[in-house]
Amino acid sequence: MNKPSDQQVDILIGNVLRAGVLLSSAVTFIGLLLYLVHHYSATPNYHQFHSISGKLRHLRELFPDAFHGDPVAIIQVGVLLLIATPVARVAFLVGAFALEKDRMYVVVSGFVLAVLIYSIVFFK
After folding, report:
1. Structural domains of the chain, count
2. Within-domain flag for 45
3. Is residue 46 part of a domain?
4. Which residues touch 82 (CB under 8 Å, ≥6 apart)?
5. Percentage of residues of the chain with pLDDT beyond 90
6. pTM for the complete prediction?
7. How far is CA 81 from CA 3, 41, 42, 67, 106, in A?
8. Is 49 inside any structural domain?
9. 63 domain residue, yes or no
10. Residue-range definition of the domain harbouring residue 117
11. pLDDT tens figures, 5-63
12. What is the mean pLDDT of residues 65-70?
């Protein structure tokens, strides 16, 4: 397999980032439209802060709610996709550096990817 040029890698990374942002924007926009359809007449209460419900904080409960059309869960999935976009970029870079057989950058990028995944999974 031929090694991709630096310009090809840059273009592919740009496309990965662009696709991630567009996908997360589309999902969030769909959730927003559904939210407005379901709650168009709701009056917000700004006197007391209400955090998101606990079920929106756990992936096991978030995705089934999103697939069943819960607007807030769909918006939350859009935010998660936006967070996952730079993580996908780092994962893509690990693969690109592996194709170039640049071990030092594979190790450094792999370490950065491991730290990102660790921080997403274990910090709440």
Report:
1. 1
2. no
3. no
4. 20, 21, 24, 25, 28
5. 49
6. 0.79
7. 29, 29, 27, 15, 24
8. no
9. yes
10. 6-37+55-122
11. 878 888 989 999 999 999 999 999 999 999 999 877 777 777 877 776 677 777 788 88
12. 88
